[in-house]
């Protein structure tokens, strides 16, 4: 069952985020097979970064924790807080995964 990883940026981490963007994107590309979804969290202005989220298709919390720990953003100290939660698919890409009743 997948895990949702939600991370919040540290205050004033934008320069660090910008400086590690390329290795972060390379990390995501290298781990694309594990990613059901990923993206930046933004302020309503659509530009100001707040953090990141990932839905990773791994079997254990330890694997989800290892994924986050290996992210260049995490290694560089961009994230101040993160939460990892087991996630059950109900809908993804417009497709229903709920049991038929």
From TrEMBL:
Transmembrane segments: none annotated. Pfam families: YCII (PF03795). Gene3D superfamilies: Dimeric alpha+beta barrel. Residues 1-88 form the YCII-related domain. SUPFAM superfamilies: Dimeric alpha+beta barrel (SSF54909). InterPro entries: Dimeric_a/b-barrel, Sec-metab_biosynth-assoc, YCII. Belongs to the YciI family. This is YciI family protein. It comes from Teichococcus aerophilus. The lineage of its organism: Bacteria, Pseudomonadati, Pseudomonadota, Alphaproteobacteria, Acetobacterales.
